[in-house]
Amino acid sequence: MMKIFNPATEELIKEIQTDDKSSVQRAHEDLKKGQVEWAAESMSHRLACLRKFMVLLERDKSALGEILSNEVGKPVSQAIGEIGGAIGRISYFVDNFSEVLAPREAHVAPGLIEKVSYDPLGVIANISAWNYPYLVGVNVFVPALLAGNSVLYKPSEFSTLTGLEIERLLLEAGVPSNAFKCIVGTGQVGQVLLGLPLDGYFFTGSYKTGQYIYEQVAPKMVPCQMELGGKDPMFVSEKIQDVKGVAAVAVEGAFYNNGQSCCAVERIYVQESIADEFIAAFIAETKTLKVGDPTEDGIFFGPLSRSEQLDVLEQQVADALAQGAQLELGGKRMDGKGYYFEPTILTNVSHKMAVMKEESFGPVIGIQVVKDEAEAVRLMKDTKYGLTSAIYTTDQEEFEAIASQMNSGTVYWNCCDRVSPHVPWSGRGHSGFGSTLSEEGIKAFVRPKAWQMRTV
Length: 456
Ligand code: NAD
Hints:
Blueprint: E1 2-5, E2 12-16, H1 21-40, H2 43-59, H3 61-72, H4 76-100, E3 104-109, E4 112-120, E5 123-127, H5 133-146, E6 150-154, H6 160-172, E7 180-182, H7 187-194, E8 200-204, H8 207-217, E9 224-227, E10 232-236, H9 243-255, E11 265-271, H10 272-287, E12 290-291, E13 299-301, H11 308-322, E14 326-329, E15 344-347, E16 364-370, H12 373-380, E17 388-392, H13 396-403, E18 410-413, E19 425-426, E20 432-433, E21 435-436, H14 438-443, E22 446-454
Parallel strand pairs: 5-6, 5-8, 6-7, 8-9, 10-11, 10-17, 11-16, 12-13, 15-16, 17-18
Antiparallel strand pairs: 1-2, 3-4, 4-22, 9-20, 14-15, 19-21
The structure holds nicotinamide-adenine-dinucleotide.
């Protein structure tokens, strides 16, 4: 059995039966049979099921938002917003899927036709995170299902109820129960998947777990994809005109979902001549955002989803202060029930401090003043991670010069903390490898087959 707690109240929401080795093995056997039948269905049938899934998500959005908010602590409005975002991504997939995977003639010469077609991988594991269970989930199981794979879905133990809702709605939408199965449990249940001969492993989560899974999966010689953490930098050039406006956007980028986004702005470098104005505006904007009960209207910061993260944030703040950082706002966990941490702003920070090097995954930000573009580039690149990099400047040449030097899967110009289904979502270094979303994120779930045909 597993207990599910509400991070805002620390009350027990539910006790739930977990899977074990034999139930996971049985699920795998079912999915093996189911995959063959599911892949034999027409593409138009699979597309119709996923279109229906979008309709059902829209129908149940409010109730689903409440369930998600209860188990992860994000404000209900942000939870409902996440479901809306997921519907947008599914819409991209269903609109583009057939074209991206259409068999095509690659080369035709007298007496020779060379063609490419795509086969599904088989039964794939979708081991997922809790911070955006709908968004990171649909990135994987939607294209996987559309391509004719069956999916063994392991939601995070911190978003299990949402995982079960996803399963319920997919089945209601017409996806067979032997094409998609949700298994319940902690990392121990996830571990069982690593012992099975699955045909692909798609992981979203921390670097530590991802590295371990990659090592375990390597001998199987099957596709393995990793969407991991980040320590994403933002540079604010003195060329920007609207300092207050950029500060407001930076606050949202750093603190939306309580900073628990893989692509949250985790460190800011601001140029000297505008630093005082930027920092003052950043602090003032943060103070306008309310912390509190995530079910109440107008709340921006709920509790953290996991109590352990409170310790991580406290340690980062203590380490920064011990090394000379200045605390501009917040800095500690809040009294009372719930895993609340004060929105925290540190200045006078340096790269000797964990807060500028290690993923915070919470409402803590370090703002460092830099002399020029060159210093900003050096510091932005001083990281093991490589998910996104944001550059704020009115000068396109300056943006392109910096962006081309970033070793990150995404570069942003005058925007941040956003994911688009039209372009690949990928990390580098400790942020992982492989892509979801876009054409690349569709082709991740198939194997190409080359047809070389002599016609004479
Ligand atoms: P986590 O690594 O703790 O857990 C992720 C999943 O792995 C969970 O389902 C967990 O039960 C499972 N797991 C744990 N041990 C396992 C094992 N030995 N074998 C198999 N499965 C196991 O991560 P988390 O706390 O759920 O997620 C937060 C992390 O995810 C952050 O680092 C965040 O940046 C990252 N993330 C990245 C992206 C991205 O797109 N790059 C998106 C969302 C979250």
